[in-house]
Amino acid sequence: MTLLVIVPQAGFTGPVGLGHWIHEQREKLILGNAYHLLDHDEDVVQWVRIADTSSRREGFAFVTPRRVIVHWNGRPAEDVSFLWQQVRSWAVDINADHGPHLAVEGEGLEVSIKLPTDTHATAERVSDFFRRWARHAPKSDEHPSNARKTRKSDWRSDGEVEVKIVPRTPLEMARRILVTVIGVTIFVVGTLIIPLPGPWSFPIQLLGLAILASEYDWAKDGLMWTRKQYAKAKAEIRKRRAARSQPGR
């Protein structure tokens, strides 16, 4: 089995068209994580990548005019959805490690997430996220209890958050370079052996992509897409087997 990427012909013109198409597909893939929690007339107006450094979870936070959805990759049972009117207090620590730290508290609600900002693109998206957040969230005159439990820092409760890029340390940069070399090499090897007999190319490509996903968002999205396609194919095979096993078919 090989890893195939199908590019639509309509409206596709060269590298610019390919880049636009890939961007659209990534947006659809990411937004798909929130669809099952939305009302039929509800749309996501902003999303941002999030992390939980204590449990090494990664995911997305989605903002709509009605609610906020916190989704953790691979852990749909841990997804959190809360309406804006449930929020009683919130605050942002702009000096937290690896990016701003958002703490939220409300009726049966306690959420704490980190928003990584290691590139200009992520910092800009996080800034937009906080502007949207402040537009919809109720005014907060006090900090949440989960914010007060942390070390003394620069907590604030307004949308004018100055988001800064958190540069990687020399050790983190060295790790990124090593991961890049190893991941790309493995993926290329998996691609080169496609003509050979046996199902080895796809697992090797997947291994290379998984290694790259530890450092690159685009690889994380590619890995997420691959897993979802595999789950769909597996479900379809089970469905066909069940249909063939029914009497009279």
Give the name of the CATH architecture of the largest domain.
Roll
Strand content: 15-25%
The name CATH uses for the topology of the largest domain is PH-domain like
- How many runs of DSSP E, i.e. beta strands? 8
Mean pLDDT over the residues: 84
Q: What is the distance, rounded to the nearest whole angstrom, between the alpha carbons of the first and last residues? A: 30 Å
Structure description:
The chain has 249 residues and is an alpha+beta fold. It folds into 2 domains: 14-156, Roll (PH-domain like); 170-245, no CATH class. Helix content is 41%, strand content 18%. The chain contains 6 helices and 8 strands. The chain has helices at residues 14-31, 120-136, 145-148, 170-192, 201-212, 217-245; strands at 46-52, 57-63, 67-72, 80-83, 87-93, 101-106, 109-114, 155-156. The strands form 2 sheets. The protein has a 4-stranded antiparallel beta sheet with strand order 1-2-3-4. The protein has a 4-stranded antiparallel beta sheet with strand order 7-6-5-8. β3 (67-72) and β4 form a beta hairpin. Mean pLDDT is 84; it is low at 1-7.
